[in-house]
Write a structure and sequence with these properties.
homodimer, alpha/beta, Ubiquitin-like (UB roll), Nucleotidyltransferase, domain 5, 6-stranded mixed β-sheet, 31 strands
């Protein structure tokens, strides 16, 4: 048995015997305890703060005396005088073992600390950045032992970090000598080591001691919007978020029109590549300014996007994605120098692109999978990222399936007669009285319902301008509950419904949601609007249903709605329409921008990059275009909610009148031609 | 004992038993026999040609029957019809083992064949390029098994080459899909794997089967001249050589004036970086055109250069090289993408820079070390690369020392009153009759001696314009042998020498080498010229002498003169001047542009890159500037040949008159101030 003092670390519980005089940092490193240090034990960085505990510890079987650590020393005193050391704390590199001791490593001193995520059902993020800082003192040049300044820097960094090999970015060869001399042969290097543990590289260098923090950018590169989060890589904190319109919009609103633009215009794809890269460079400028962060301190970046954006961002013509077999140029994750992507941020910045799952299921879906982790779910989860193309994941810890389904832009208010983007003035919530068939509604930008006092005054500024995506879901679902629309999607006439709000509008009926006023036209829901939503939701549902077939189930335990649209949608109304499978309403949750969250996770924790790459390889991919049952599911799903699936759970909470307005000559949606739209 | 047939390969002698039906290529691969194949055994590339031998082989203990191999097949027939197969040859991938057989692998079918070097004393080069071609058939995309085209290409390449991991250059992501489709899913990839065996990378891609050859560029980036050799990487053959003036000359003739330019002009170093890179890009264009080679097929490049050129080429300010302690920014070898060096050759091209030995001993000296291999020498070799700065290596297989010595530009004809660069009209050879003191000489561009009939007519075009570097060595040495110059370097007067060619020229005497004519001034050798040469040769000799001290020897077994100047110098005359240590004259050899040869070796054989990196780390570096004995050696070496070292071997073949022209008031060179000139 060793007679050396016993050192016990909490919360890890790691323990070992160390000779008297061993610094706590040294003991921690030897035991593999997660204790931070940038300066390698020189008493400069103060990252290795620890809290010794004294007294009796029956649990650990030790008694810690007051003199278990060395006395407070001059380095600690100097640090305390300059910066202030929290009471009870010591610097792990200065305090040495004198007797048995229990050492608590506070969260701030852990490299791999946890970032708490707000939603209860998701896991916290463990910090594990690809970038670390290391402060070193470099041997000065000596004519008698000639070696390059770089070689001596690398020698010092190897000793400090324990890495066996270290490389340097070529762009640093030029500033290397001035930085070393400005720092008096003391420098701080940012080392990047990717998740595949390749040789670490020096990607940035500062004279003297540079405390950080360093930042990383998580980007959701959407067809419409580019959204970025700037994160502190040491704390995980989001210090700024910024978004801008994707400048590619000038080449086409949706993805297929951009693919067409590239096909019709020689070099068109490169124009779009340049546009999106310019947009990203602008985003970096904006977000750095917003957060008052030096762009030179942004040294990592993670990107998620759909396959077309993925290819255009990489400078690859998306031509092949516009036609079967929808072949991706590359599907695996990519680790590149940001400069290779034309990004003009700090020259050492790295860019990581999550893998694409399939030709229609992109890195954005991989981001959703990383954030929502269906592969770690105990119950069977259906995760739907609703956009103009819906990406659908179904799975639990036994396996995950994925597909994409061409919902088209109806859910975003396009193809709807009174549709509009979610903006002030747009109707977003609707209720219809089943007895009177009279509606009431709320518009974005106003807390009042339309039948409440002061509503007219409150909306005077914005007006009532149209119906946004979530509003159209609600109004049609409410029409279905109120018996204004039948299961086939037909709106009844005034006579059939007993409501003057129903009127003949061409060959079919429409419903007046708002009568209009002196300034604005009435807002109606046409049978065409219902047809458009039927198409979109049938596509979504039949994609989900196909995955359920493959999995051999007829129901799911829970549904996660991802994407901005998912955040606003009412679970009940979505289910009345049969957008999502039958399921207890409280089991339908919203994940917000899960793709962006996935990017943030991959940014903060490089192990998550290995996880998602492994998961994506294991996901079973279903191509809906070639699945024979897709068409059958689609036809069934055209009904409201469905002509084949009974939706028993829904029917326990909502009564759906058994009306039928088909007069024989009408045009039900169930025979509507199937569109194939991607984008 | 196996009953399978025995297959014996020559010249390797490798042997093994293989089941009937095994292709010879497969047998070769399993035994590690060096048999080339680009197409992986598809009968397309014909690189795996072998010659079976039939009959009795008592040496191997086998009898090979006529049916030891399978019959000539359709693939071989097709190849023979199209291209013609040498009689007796078979395709190793088609011919299968049927019985015991002896297989000769001809040199053309070996990847690692030898390139024979002309000089007897040096080793041949074993071919082992960083770049290899691989032809593969790629699985087509399948909607049911979505994966990127790249991932399927890599899968095929892994199977064909046996590499566990393969990466791709980012620039190929864009052309990847069109190339795969143009080739009908058959492509040829160029894979680069450096000498450190890092993950191989696809650096170029061609649709269908691309036969090669691929080329590489070996560049000696001199202060004055940039010289390049374009080599076929599969045969080692130099297909074209080209040289151009270093465009940096406009910023300063010698290196120190360029360092000064960078110090005096903000951004001056970057101007020079741009100039040299432009020069290199021009060289590539010239040499590719000259050889009628597609620049896209030049995929490797190796560079040697002195430290100042090294830094300027890399875009590093050479400021630190201009002052003690002469710190290199980086000394180790560098493997980079050529594009990182601003080179606009094929985007996948790799660039390898040999390591620098010390602040004054550059990658060019490393090239000399690689070419001349003093570390492998049985006897003690002194290798001198003579330029404006002499790099000196001394060693044998027990160890190598290196230093640099500031000879200045006198050996190149600068600082000499009648000096000029080696060009037509320059005096290059001189003889002086010791009795009459009358000279005769030859000029560049004319085979006749000046006392031969027809000389005047022959040189009428060029004239007699001056003395080049080797000419000045000869004339001074001849003057010393003829008793016109004494050991201290003083020219005697007409009275002292008995020759009217000696005349008082200011405070010292000069010697008339040529009287001039109507068109041209006389050509004389002044005492100042002799002083300049004394300085230069003393620097060179004392550097060598210092290494000999360190090694504890007073003589060397042989001397190798590298560099263009070394190729023209007369060993006897150099030794009379005491430029090089005493040694049998036949042991003084010229290595030509050994630095450039070293670049070519590193280009053709990646193992040589490991060798030189290892050697450079082991070389003992001596900084002459801080060696106390350098001054003493320098003073001794100022005499002709030397005031301390006796040169007994030289004196056996040459008589040096014991004359002295010091009249007491003269200024001997031995007290001349020591200059420190670098460049």
């Amino acid at each position: 048995m060793s007679s050396d003092p016993l050192v016990i670390f909490t919360p890890s519980g790691k323990r070992g015997n160390f000779p008297v005089g061993t610094p706590i940092l040294t003991a921690a490193r030897q035991l593999g305890v997660d204790l931070d240090s940038v300066c390698g034990g020189r008493g400069i960085c103060s990252k290795c703060q620890i809290t010794p505990s004294y007294g009796e510890f029956p649990k650990h079987g030790v008694t810690v005396s007051e003199d278990a650590l060395s006395d407070w020393n001059a380095v600690e005193q100097r640090y305390d005088d300059k910066r202030g050391l929290t009471k009870g704390r010591r610097l792990g590199c200065q305090a040495t073992v004198q007797g048995d001791v229990v050492i608590d490593v506070p969260a701030e001193s852990q490299v791999h600390k946890q970032v708490v995520r707000k939603r209860a059902e998701v896991r916290d993020i463990t910090l594990n950045s690809t970038v670390q800082l290391a402060y070193v003192e470099v041997e000065e040049p000596d004519m008698h032992k000639p070696s390059g300044d770089l070689e001596r820097l690398i020698t010092a960094l190897k000793a400090s970090t324990g890495f066996a090999e270290i490389e340097i970015d070529t762009h640093l060869l030029r500033p290397l000598q001035p930085i070393l001399r400005k720092g008096g042969w003391k420098v701080t290097a940012a080392l990047h080591q990717d998740h595949k543990a390749q040789t670490p590289r020096i990607i940035a260098l500062w004279p003297g001691y540079f405390e950080g923090p360093l930042y990383g950018l998580a980007v959701d590169l959407g067809s419409t919007t580019i959204a970025g989060h700037l994160c502190n890589l040491a704390t995980g904190e989001v210090v700024a978020s910024s978004g801008l319109m994707n400048p590619q919009i000038r080449f086409g609103e949706d993805l297929m029109s951009r693919v067409s633009y590239a096909m019709m215009n020689k070099g068109g794809d490169l124009e779009m590549t340049e546009a999106v890269r310019e947009g990203l460079n602008q985003l970096v400028i904006d977000i750095a300014k917003d957060a008052e962060v030096d762009p030179a301190h942004i040294l990592d970046a993670v990107f998620v996007m759909n396959p077309v954006m993925h290819h255009l961002f990489l400078g690859i013509d998306p031509f092949e994605l516009g036609q079967a077999p929808f072949a991706l140029a590359t599907s695996d994750a990519l680790s590149l120098a940001a400069s290779e992507l034309g990004l003009t941020i700090a020259p050492g910045t790295r860019a990581y692109l999550l893998p694409c799952i399939a030709g229609h299921v992109g890195a954005d879906a991989a981001g959703v999978a990383l954030s929502e982790a269906p592969d770690k779910s105990e119950d069977l989860a259906l995760v739907v990222d609703v956009g103009t193309n819906a990406e659908i994941l179904l799975g639990d810890k036994n396996g995950v399936l994925a597909c994409s389904s061409p919902t088209g832009p109806a859910f975003e208010g396009a193809q709807i007669s009174a549709g509009q983007r979610a903006a002030p003035g747009a109707i977003e919530r609707v209720e219809i009285d089943p007895a009177t068939k009279e509606p009431r509604f709320r518009v974005i930008g106003c807390e009042l319902w339309s039948d409440e006092e002061g509503f007219a005054t409150a909306v005077a500024d914005t007006g009532i301008t149209g119906i946004c995506g979530s509003g159209i879901i609600e109004v049609i679902a409410e029409m279905r509950i109120a018996g204004i629309v039948d299961a086939s999607g037909l709106i009844g006439s005034a006579e059939q419904t007993g409501s003057a709000r129903c009127f003949l509008d061409g060959r079919t009926n429409s419903y007046t949601l708002w009568e209009g006023d002196a300034d604005q036209k009435p807002i109606t829901v046409t049978n065409g609007d219902i047809r458009a939503i039927q198409m979109a939701k049938a596509a979504l549902y039949s994609g989900a249903r196909l995955l359920m077939d493959k999995r051999g189930v007829t129901e799911v335990d829970r549904v996660v709605l991802a994407g901005a649209f998912g955040a606003h949608i009412s679970a009940k109304h979505a289910m009345v329409l049969g957008m999502i499978p039958d399921c207890p309403l409280e089991k339908v949750t919203s994940a917000g921008n899960a793709a962006g969250t996935g990017a943030r996770i991959a940014l903060l924790n490089k192990d998550a990059r290995n996880s998602i790459e492994t998961l994506v390889r294991k996901i079973e991919k279903i191509e809906t275009a070639v699945e024979p049952r897709f068409q059958e599911h689609f036809v069934n799903a055209s009904a409201l909610p469905n002509s084949a699936d009974p939706f028993p759970i829904l029917r326990e909470v909502v009564t759906l009148p058994e009306v039928s307005f088909n007069t024989g000559g009408g045009e039900g949606a169930s025979g509507g031609r199937r569109r194939r739209r991607r984008g």
